[in-house]
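Complex 587.
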Amino acid sequence: MTDVETDDVAEEPEAPDESEAAEVTEPPDPNAVVINVNGNDVAARKGETVIAAALRNDEYIPHFCYHPRMSPVGMCRQCMVEVEGPRGPMMVVSCMTPVADGQVVRTATDEVKRAQEGMLELLLANHPLDCPVCDKGGECPLQDQAFSHGPGESRYVEQKRHYEKPIPISDLVYLDRERCILCDRCTRFADEVAGDKLIHFISRGNNTQVMTFPDEPFVSYFSGNTVQICPVGALTARPYRFKARPWDLSQRESTCTTCSVGCRTVIQSSRDELLRYQGVDSDPVNWGWLCDRGRFNFEATNSDHRLGAPMIKTEAGLVETTWSGALDTAAGLINQALTDGGPESIALLGGARGSNEDAFAWAQLADAIGIRHRDAQLGDGLPAELLGLERATIDEAANAATIVLLGPDLKEELPVLYLRLRDAAEKGRSRIVEFSATESGLSPYAWKSIRHEPGTQLKAVASALADSEIAEQLASGDVVIVAGRANLADSADVTVAALQALLDEVPGAKVLPALRRGNIVGALSVGLAPADADHDGLATLQAAADGKIELLILLGADPLNDCPDADLARRAVAGARRIVAIDTFPS
Ligand code: SF4
Ligand code: SF4
Ligand code: FES
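Predicted structure with iron/sulfur cluster bound:
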């Protein structure tokens, strides 16, 4: 340790005087307001509703039609509260009343309770009260609030309204109109969130009901969300009907692995059987929504075709074996391949349908053996080097001034990302500049939709960049480029060249990869990326087709279905000397 010359010691900065300190304090937030709910001061923001501020601060207000992710409509009138006004207390619906600084709100006075009881009595007047046979029983906001905020008994002795129950409005969703309380959640979701206006209110007065158009079923990629947000048992999903009671369910929060959006879910099971996925409101990702593909694909888990035991190919075909037998055989095959052809003759493809931990473990094994032929993609994605570009989150994309779409039809491939970007465009936060060969799900919401021949993205991007209006828009704020393979028949080079042209022009743009399988980014990042182009997915399949691969290990990958070059995949599978396939179904 050397002595420090006293001259080297920096002078102590003088403590700022109080007036200087005051200058550096944050300016007050102009949107912050304080309201008083039941005697407690509650922080709120200008523009939000009384119910939103109250619920966020644990002041419960009963409600049915209010949903934090949709615009308020004031349909059910259950959220009545008392607000102090210039002429004394007024009864208002809290989901339609904006907060104001100093506002005094009371949620549980005798008058409020009477109003809430009255509303519940009206909502229950025509309700069949068939809770014992209703799938929603036990998790039903109407049932719960009838207990907590209802009158306790009914005075209604007249004949109730009757409808045929239930009627299928799609292959997945059943509607029981007798239970419907006309809250407008499902219809609002279909219109406002999904953009699929396929269910509406029809008729008038006492006969108002939710209905599809004649001969047009509720065929939406997002129909299951209406079942989840329906506050009664009016909408039920076929796969879950009469399967379990909510109190019988065990659940774990998880992530949907069906595509790379990674929606937050809760997985529910009863008696060792998977019964339901529900969306969880994750602010940065899915806002509680799931697509039907992600929501209902749990049925595959219970499929009879699922592999129940490891299998080994013998002369008699595939026969079941024990796990220790399968692991011994796999280890023997690896050793045999090492002896016969060395590590260069072993290949590892896939790994993007599992977790990061799975992929990491396989990458460690590949490192230990010295496997260079490895790739989580099978020629159907983008080069792994693109992951080195500055990546945008879903939230950043949905809040960027400009979203450039240079990839697949998001409604088809990454459905909940489509919902987030559609919302950004519809609410005016973002402008979408879309490059596509055909009309896509987001075309109707795009500010500019630029059509081009397949494979000519670069030319289309170059001419768009020469357009002064588009150039001005790109310079006006944050830009996120959603980049993926628009079409598997195009090579990845086409997307890469167009992306590079955009990044040259807008160097500050961030990139959101639009990749197909659940965890490609994770698998590539933790070690399943190819070392170079001579060892990527397509090169590996070519090596197998050329008879250079002694052992091909497939991690949840099926080249015959996943690789865009089906002929190469067929030749590779035929050319690989031995194959170990790790999968849930026979591939
Ligand atoms: S079906 Fe459910 S979500 Fe739709 S309006 Fe009726 S109660 Fe509301
Ligand atoms: S968008 Fe993707 S991650 Fe989300 S629910 Fe659908 S399949 Fe799953
Ligand atoms: S929740 Fe306010 S009117 Fe329905």
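The pocket of iron/sulfur cluster (ligand 1) is lined by residues 180-186, 210, 230-232, 234-235 (CB under 6 Å).
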